[in-house]
Specification:
The complex is a heterodimer. Chain A is of the alpha+beta class. Chain A has two helices and eight strands, in the order ββββββββαα. Helix content of chain A is 25%, strand content 31%. The longest helix of chain A is centred in the C-terminal third of the chain and has 17 residues. By secondary structure, chain B is mainly β. Chain B has a five-stranded mixed beta sheet, covered by helices on one side. Classes of the chains: A alpha+beta, B mainly beta. Chains A and B meet through strand 4, strand 6 and helix 1 of A and strand 18, strand 21 and strand 22 of B. Strand 6 of chain A pairs antiparallel with strand 22 of chain B, so a sheet runs across the interface.
């Protein structure tokens, strides 16, 4: 068992490596996805798709933020945390009721949402690259 | 007012303007500052084929739709055919990307090298040309496509893929009884994007992006 981490170093890549290193947040702008190993050190891989109905990603000088929280309730560890400016902010385990409410909301936005327009993608890239390069 | 509009052509991807309708191979090399001129091969891309342009050959820009040229340092030309059309090239290698572009081959097709027993030329690969033989290349309907699943390239049959098949590409030990997988996709056929749920299937294409999440959002 690896030790839990309290920070994630962001690495921008074209393709995500097959094996992830603990403590690294791999971001592929091309594939609209970020992956990292669960911060608790359990070794489970966490995928956070960066599309409108999934996660928001912001890169700042101090590090990356991903919203909403990472809720690994299906993993044995049950970890729940927020990634903010490269730091892990541990949150409490959620109740079954909270988990189900989150899932119901997820289904609602997915089936209700219109496909994301090109403008939104362009805006997303601009924000991302502005943070990344600028 | 006399018509003062000039003519343009592309050389090595850059747009060049000129007042002359008729240019020689010497003029085009000179405009590009290629010196000494005889050290450069000039190739013109013409209607899904290409040919080399000698120093004294002339081209009437009025007769060519969007004239395009490539220059190569060297004094040899190499021959190949792409979909039965003759190509001349100024280097001993040609990238698959150049073949797709110069021969206007749809990106969904795969390139095949006849002389190598119908070997597939990878989209990011290249073909080595010899001065003697003529390499024969053609495009054909691909049997497989490369998609990205959670940011990793995966080669899959070109067919409709189900929710479970995609989830298994991301998590080979996926447990559909106990876990929930959320699949979103982008860059699909005709730019399709959305989410793929249990019971659905979707056509895949080269470069299509699938992201599979096995955790709840809270």
């Amino acid at each position: 068992m690896m030790a839990r981490v309290d920070r994630l170093t962001t690495v921008f890549v074209k393709d995500i490596p097959e094996q992830l290193e603990n403590g690294v947040l791999y971001v592929s702008p091309e594939c609209h996805v970020a992956l990292h190993n669960c911060a608790c050190g359990c070794g489970e891989e966490v995928s956070t798709p960066l599309v409108q109905t999934e996660y928001d990603f912001i890169m700042e000088d101090e590090g990356a933020s991903i919203w909403p929280s990472i809720g690994n309730h299906d993993f044995p560890c049950g970890s729940h945390y927020i990634i903010k400016r490269g730091r892990i902010h541990w949150a409490g385990k959620m109740s079954r009721q909270q988990i189900e409410a989150g899932r119901a909301y997820d289904r609602l936005i997915k089936r209700g949402a219109q496909p994301k327009g090109l403008e939104a993608i362009v805006a997303w890239f601009k924000r991302l690259w502005a943070k990344f390069i600028g | 007012m006399p018509d003062t509009s000039n003519f343009t052509y592309k050389l090595d991807g850059r747009l060049v303007a000129t007042d002359d309708a008729i240019l020689s191979g010497r003029d085009i090399r000179g405009n590009a500052g290629l010196n000494p001129m005889s050290d450069y091969v000039l190739i013109q891309i013409v209607d899904r084929a290409s040919r080399s342009i000698g120093l004294d050959e002339t081209i009437d820009l009025r007769e060519v739709d969007e004239p395009e040229f490539l220059s190569f340092k060297g004094d040899r030309t190499f021959s190949l055919t792409v979909n039965e059309r003759g190509f001349e090239w100024g280097a001993a290698t040609i990238s698959a990307a150049d073949i797709y572009r110069c021969a206007s081959i749809d990106e969904d097709l795969e390139l095949i090298l006849d002389s190598a027993g119908d070997a597939v030329i990878p989209a990011d690969g290249e073909v080595t040309l010899s001065e003697k033989g003529v390499e024969r290349i053609r495009g054909r309907e691909a049997k497989t496509v490369i998609i990205k699943v959670n940011g990793r390239p995966r080669t899959v049959p070109k067919k409709k893929h189900s929710y479970r098949e995609i989830a298994l590409l991301a998590y080979p030990d996926a447990d559909f009884d106990n876990f929930k997988y959320t699949i979103t996709y982008l860059k699909g056929v005709h730019g399709a994007e959305g989410d793929l749920v249990e019971g659905e299937k979707i056509e895949v294409k080269n470069g299509m992006v699938f992201n599979v999440r096995r955790a709840d959002k809270s």
